[in-house]
Amino acid sequence: MSFQNIDVMTLNLPHKEFVGLGNYKGLFADPLLGTSLYNTLYYTVFSIAIQFVIGFMLALFFNKNFVLSKKVRGLILIPWMIPATITALVFKYMFSASGGIVDQILMDLHITGGPVEWLLHPVSAMWSLILTNSWIGVPFTMIMLLTGLTTIPSELYESASIDGASRWGKLRHITLPLLRPSIEAVLILGFISTFKVFDLVYVMTKGGPVDATETLSTLSYKLSFSEFNFSQGAAVANILFAILFVVSLAYLKLVKEDEVM
Amino acid sequence: MRKGWTLLLACVMTMTIVSGCGSDNTDGNGSAATDLPNVVKNNASASAGAQKVKLVLWHYYEKDIEDFVKKFNESQDEVEVTPNFVPFSDFKKQLTIGLSAGNLPDLVLVDNSDVAAFAAMGLFEDITDKVNAWADKDQFFEGPMKSGIYEGKNYSLPFVSNCLGLFYNKELLDQAGVNPPQTWDELKTTAKVLTKDGVHGFATSLLKGEEGTFNFYPWLIAAGGSPEKLNSPEAASAVDFLSGLLEDGSMSKEVINIGMSDIEKQFAAGKVAMMVNGPWQTTSIEKDNPELDFGIALIPQGKQNASVLGGENIGMIQGKNKEAAWKFISWALSADSVRSYEEVSGAFPPRKDVAADKKYTEDPSLKVWMEQMESAMPRGPHAKWPELSTALSTAVQAVLTGAASTTDALAEAQATVDEIMK
């Protein structure tokens, strides 16, 4: 489909014109593709970083056996189970410029002088999306890492303590190396699910203000179903696919190296 | 290596989900296929072995359309129409998917700005001969009628019309001692006076996409501009006027991120003193805040009075049962049917004879709406209107957020327009 010329004029013709890489050329000539790609990467990298740091700390915390730790752990999973559209709607109201709770709290605490108007400025709109996504992604990261942590035998820590290892040393030399497969899996799965973000963006900003939060998947949707430019929409989807494919291959390579080790 | 392949396969499967339309595709077709018996011989029908032609109508209306269609089914025994609801957000998608997969209804009620695009795709049957032979054809208003024509041929007829007008909160205007504004200058000063104590003087949705274009259109036309020539000083003056309202604080910056129904909520809550919105919001306002005393006025005029035409057209799908479908269309658009439907739905008639009814000439707000209708211009009609629409609303957003100067933003939009028009 992405190699043919399919738009409103040609959708119903029996033979679609073959245009080779014409659609891709057209896309690469349009600065919007670059913007979307940059936005998607920016969004993914920061979302993953935040999710990973918070998720990792929570995982370490809940790995300790204290009262209620299992129950609270379960509760924390809730954000991950709520459909993304609902989360997006709720956060849209929270970040809203007129009476949104985020701006209200920041103003009441005198952190900001006036409303930030989160969704109305290019950079803050992007960060609103990142924060929302992190809220969804943290529990997932946490549970994945937690599963990894439980597989590390406690004898290792005991013997390390006997050898006089510090807390930091234990983390650095036992936890992190043994957790490596889990960390890799979390990062790659997180990357894939974050990179193809659609519902959050579509509900919260529709890719706006201007094109500040246009991502590859919203661009593909817009081209196909708002502008009826089906072949270019398909081309964007293929680019998205190619990127994720490469990421998956890299992951496979990593896994293999681990197995050799 | 085997493990590698399994993982690879898993990745590929994830990707199929990523591309999105893949999964939706089967869904849509599956439900569509069961809904679409074309012409079914119904020998069991009481009318002595007569064949009843069954037609399917896709719409995104409320339940009132079902009662309307029922009336048609009861009025004769040759054609039976079944209305099927498709959500508006999915409507265009379902139709395009149906078109490429060959699963389509017989009749559709579509947004009038999409008619040209669908006609270009070959979705609609050319009904020019039917329309020309129809005695009622001169009864339709020019704007709505034009929205159903593509390249000189009739592809659909207007069923329901609407346009945008100015809603104002009488209480807030009285307190401030001002009258509803009639010109852009008056709007600017009035909105400023009304802006205080957490109330914004004015609001109109400038969301990215068709909704934003729809709302920007009256200003563009009123300024003497045209969607085909966006780098004109007239188009610039329209954008500058709206961004001026933002700078004054008379309009919330939030208008670039909220839709017409959100603005209606703010108006009903008394947070916005004046808004540009459509007549279908009247019932919502009455429901959200029965106490609110509000009036309708014409959108303040620039160089000329202007509004934008909204509404749905009814068209028949190509290659289906033309005679039976025309039977329904000519019935649905007859003066009596239009009258009975507008009665229950609160929509506006596209017919002059119905609009001449006492109801429309005497009711004070309906009178204003009818007057506004006269200056309502259709969007397009152009097959690539949706693309043009994106360019236009993005340009407006770029100026309002300060991301680009008016000249630059409009020049960029014009480049897209040139690309489309060539």
Automatic annotation (TrEMBL), chain B:
Keyword Transport: yes
Signal peptide positions on this chain: 1-20
Keywords: Signal, Transport
A GO term from the CC aspect: ATP-binding cassette (ABC) transporter complex, substrate-binding subunit-containing
One Pfam family, short name: SBP_bac_8
A molecular-function term among this protein's GO annotations: maltose binding
RNA-binding is among the record's keywords: no
GO BP terms in the entry: maltodextrin transmembrane transport; maltose transport
Positions of transmembrane segments: none
PANTHER family the UniProt entry points to: MALTOSE-BINDING PERIPLASMIC PROTEIN (PTHR30061), MALTOSE_MALTODEXTRIN-BINDING PERIPLASMIC PROTEIN (PTHR30061:SF50)
Family, as annotated: Belongs to the bacterial solute-binding protein 1 family.
Protein's UniProt name: ABC transporter substrate-binding protein
